[in-house]
Structure formats: C-alpha cells, structure tokens
C-alpha cells in the first residue's frame, strides 16, 4: 500500500482525516459529558496521531509521484 499513490491518496486524504474528525468529536463529547480524562486522551493523542499521520502520508504520496515523474518509462 505504501508503494501505490492511490492507496496513499485514500489513506492520506480520506481515512486518516475522517478518523481524526471522529476522534475529535468523540473526545469533545466525552469532555462535555463528564469523562474528562478519556476525552482529553482522545483529543490530545489519537486525534493528533491521525492528523499528523495524514500529513505524513500526503508527503509520502507527493514524493512517490515526484519519483515516478523523473522516470520517463512510467
């Protein structure tokens, strides 16, 4: 999956940002309903993992596409 730009596109632009949004909403809901510790863990840990993971995958995809553009055979 890490060698195909399509797989990196799906992960970097679709799934990881969606998971970050879901965990941010769930964490905010948990903080507002009284489970502050677990809500903050969701907000500060899991949301950040998916957000920065998304940026990393997008960078990997751009580097992969730039490498393919340099090769005239592909």
From TrEMBL:
Give the protein's recorded name: Uncharacterized protein
Q: Where are the transmembrane segments?
A: 7-31, 37-58
Instruction: Look up keyword Transmembrane and say if it applies.
Output: yes
Provide the alphabetized UniProt keywords.
Membrane, Transmembrane, Transmembrane helix
- Write down the InterPro entries for this protein, in alphabetical order: Integral_mb_put
What is the species of this protein?
A: Paeniglutamicibacter terrestris
């Amino acid at each position: 999956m890490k060698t195909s730009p399509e797989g990196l596109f799906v992960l970097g632009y679709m799934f990881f940002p969606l998971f970050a949004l879901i965990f941010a909403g769930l964490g905010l809901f948990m903080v507002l309903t009284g489970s502050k510790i677990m809500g903050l863990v969701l907000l500060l840990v899991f949301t950040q993992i998916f957000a920065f993971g998304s940026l990393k995958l997008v960078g990997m995809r751009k580097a992969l596409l730039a490498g393919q553009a340099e090769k005239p055979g592909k």
